[in-house]
Design goal:
globular; single chain; mainly alpha; binds fe (ii) ion
Length: 188
């Protein structure tokens, strides 16, 4: 049992699918927050996780899928387009009043787009990649992806504010820069 758990958590595809579920939960945390302060905190957590998740996909997973998956170029280009749109939508959301109806409405449709994007990844890209690559490859890629985790909240309900978390607070664009730096260092 223990061994099965270790294997599943070191496979890059399983790891990213788990993050997809975490992202969905964190959208709910923002949408259902009890007060503006809690909503702000949940929104920071969500953006940090999205920054490390999407950056890891762009640097580690999509390039590999281009070559390994049938029709990889078209599939990856479509995902990159969705990720680019998500970044633009996030910078619009960051300028809104977090407690306004406008924000909640925009965040709800953004959540729907992100969930749809994740489903495309799982069904058109990740499952195929998992079938094509060896266990050793999937494990090596997971190592690079996990390197970015150091700046992301992996346990949003732990109730403990960590120093690394505060380090990454700021506009989404700067979170992306930090995620890129962490992954670059890991894949050198
Ligand atoms: Fe993605
Ligand atoms: Fe994803």
């Amino acid at each position: 049992m223990v061994q099965t758990f270790v294997q599943s958590t070191t496979d890059v595809v399983d790891f990213l699918k788990h993050q997809h579920n975490l992202i969905k939960d964190m959208f709910d945390d923002v949408l259902h927050a009890s007060d503006p302060k809690a909503r702000e905190k949940a929104f920071v957590d969500l953006r940090q996780l999205l920054a490390v998740h999407e950056t890891a996909e762009e640097m580690v997973v999509h390039p590999r899928a281009r070559h390994e998956v049938a029709d990889g170029d078209n599939i990856v280009d479509a995902r990159l387009k969705e990720e680019h749109e998500a970044k633009e939508e996030l910078s619009r959301l960051e300028k809104m009043d977090i407690d306004s109806e406008e924000f909640l409405k925009a965040l709800t449709s953004f959540r729907d787009a992100v969930v749809e994007h994740a489903e495309h990844e799982e069904n058109e890209e990740f499952n195929q990649l998992q079938a094509e690559l060896s266990a050793a490859d999937l494990k090596r890629m997971a190592g690079a992806v996990r390197a970015a985790e150091a700046i992301a909240p992996t346990r949003p309900h732990a109730g403990v504010e960590s120093a690394v978390l505060n380090f990454a607070v700021g506009p989404f664009a700067s979170m992306l820069d930090r995620a890129r730096d962490a992954i670059s260092a890991a894949i050198k």
